[in-house]
Amino acid sequence: MKRRYFFPIHICVFFCCIFSSCSKMLDDPYPDMSIGENQIRPADIPLLVNGAYSKIQGISNQTYPLFDIYADDVISIQGGTSTMFNPQSYEACNVNPADGFGNGSYYNSSYTAIGNANFIINFIRSRDLSSLNKELGEALAIRAFCYYRLVQAYSGVVITLGPNEDPAELKRPKNSEEEVYARIFTDLTDAEKLLPSFTTANAMSKEALQLLRARIHLNRGERTEAKKYAELVIGSSATALSADFTSNFRYGNSGNKEMLFRLIEGPAVYGYDRAGMFPLFSPGLPYRRPTGATGNGQTWLNPDLVNAYEPGDTRAVMLKEQFASSAGKVVTFLMKFSTDTVQQSNAFVVYPMIRLSEAYLISAEVDARDGVVNVARYNELRQKRNLPGKSTADFTDANDFLNEIEWERRREFVGEGLRWQDMKRFGKAVSWLTSKGQPDTKTLLPFPNSELVRNPKLEQNEGYNL
């Protein structure tokens, strides 16, 4: 099935009447009609940017927990058909290339958002619309973010920059991993000059972009750059750690300056209790929301992680112990995405993407990897989580401190999609794959079979068969 992009030929926008009366629908796209590029006005671009944001997550919420279930913090025994999102197979690090809901949606949603961003970037640049510099910066940041999602999952991928380029229809081999990273850094550099400082988590800002860049540099072993960008974000007057940890996951989080970028889904008019990560992560019966909704009760947390939370840690409020009949024992469920505990009556789903706390732990990790036990940034975060500070004497050496940083990241970001990249960076991924009976080639995901059929020149990642 051909992916639907914005202009000029294919557009994911529903127009119920003439453009002048319904351009407000541009930020709520549907794959219905095609319109010409000459019908777009500069005033419509902000709405197209909103549409690009909406495409990052894709039609399937199953893309969000993909790497959490692949890694060691989350245990899932949920099943499913072989061609649909199957958490149990992800937990075994045995992704099916035919899976079109988890792996496939992750791949396709990234390229759909890239296609939308490409149109916006080309439209603004070809017309030299300096009045739309903010929107240009957002589109560049969206494109960089999506290529980052792709390269971390698949390594090299096909780069598309044209306004209507479907990567499979280009019928060419994938670009190298380094070429993709070069594209990412070019877009991030250009966007940083255009984006304003943080005011809302619903749009890319200068600080969100800088923290994304710090994350990418850290994963690539580029420690000087990682520290530089992390400290820029920490030093910004627009950002601040929140004393209320749960506010990071509420849709209505007025005053929160820690959640720097998130994706939201909604309002869901019907059945929002079953939307997003609530059914996946929440416990089953006898747990019920006031509305009567309950989770699947088949996905819980690694007990080693649960036991690593210290008494008084405010993050522990997001954990719930309950007997699970599917496990035959009491297990601990993650409630970050429960509409019961944090979303209240709002029919919105929140997907955290970039939080300020990561900058503090990146800064501390860089110091540890440089052989320095510098507890300053680490303690600043602990203080906001209602925990006492530690001294350098509490750690035998920098490696001991580095181990503590890894655990702090696990406690802070469980369920937010960062653990698999952390495992690769901390040298834990290959041994984890071995424990699952999988080869080290499965540090990467497979390209979806449907994409290989559409582009015969796209070579499958090693360890997977068509």
From TrEMBL:
The SusD-like N-terminal domain, residue ranges: 48-208
Domain of life of the organism encoding this protein: Bacteria
Compartment(s) where it occurs, according to its Swiss-Prot or TrEMBL record: Cell outer membrane
Chief localisation class: membrane
Keyword Signal among UniProt keywords: yes
GO cellular component: cell outer membrane
Recorded coiled-coil stretches: none
Pfam families per the UniProt record, alphabetical: SusD-like_3 (PF14322), SusD_RagB (PF07980)
PROSITE patterns, A to Z: PROKAR_LIPOPROTEIN
Keywords, alphabetical: Cell outer membrane, Membrane, Signal
Stretch forming the signal peptide: 1-26
Domain RagB/SusD: 338-429
InterPro entries: SusD-like_N, SusD_RagB_dom, TPR-like_helical_dom_sf
Family: Belongs to the SusD family.
Protein name: SusD-like starch-binding protein associating with outer membrane
